[in-house]
User: Fold this.
Amino acid sequence: MRTETISDKSKFAIVESYKAARSNIMFSLSADDDKIFAVTSYSKGEGKSTVSANLAISFSKMDKRVLLLDCDLRRPNIHNIFKVENIAGLSNVIGKMVDFEDVVQRNVLPNLDILPSGTIPPNPSELLCSSRFVDLIKRLNDEYDYIIFDTPPIGVVADALLLKDLVAGFVVVLRERSTTHGDVQNIIDSMKLADADILGFVKVGCESAKKRSRRGYYYYQYY
Assistant:
């Protein structure tokens, strides 16, 4: 699967699609004056980490302070996308092994900080449910304009939905010819059962505008 972060050299359609997604997410967040949201998918390999990364980049281009957290403590990938070290990170901060300031990657891009996952723990769900994690997010909320969680697929583990009380809602990534209608229905049912909000869907892996759609490689749909 291709992993590509947006830059000044990216195709216009891709950049504009992320701008559209960003605008719609901002409207959704402004309804409750919130600024924290999570990105997830149904299955692994659908591109959620790439979407998380590109949304973080897109938000940072507005001259807003953005923090991207890799909350996938089972199969982390944010450090690979941005090519930063992952010797220690979120799991180590929650476990009180290091301080946030010791492991946050400052200004990976202008206005964008990244906290990688850190050491893969034996108890990821317990760490994400811990009061220490809640306290960390409350403190960081004062430092950043937007905080984005890259979370595990909800069809694989329950970790993402454990964070529902910390976020305004979830952006769900769907992959063309991978995510099924049944997967989408399962996502909606799981969100309803957990009383979690869906901010929208980002569909990836579409063919070019000339072949299939005028929406480009990525498009955002409000739910």
Notes: The longest helix spans residues 12-30. The helical segments are 12-30, 48-60, 78-82, 90-94, 100-103, 124-129, 131-141, 181-194.
